[in-house]
Design brief:
Helix content: 55-70%
Number of helices: 2
Oligomer: single chain
Structural class: mainly alpha
Radius of gyration: 13 Å
Low-confidence stretches: none
Strand content: under 5%
Order of helices and strands: HH
Amino acid sequence: MPETQVFLIFITAVGIMKYVEKIEDQPFEKIGELMLETCTQYFNMDSGNESKPKLNAIIE
């Protein structure tokens, strides 16, 4: 399930970045960057005993 959430965060972030290429919106771009950082952190974790990080880009 978390992999599906990360995938959805990623494709949403890509959409945001495509949007801000055409229309300048720095606050919205920061949200996209946070979403991409969340994906990067999730997949860069070692396969050791460390648990996966919380998906910070998910709004609860």
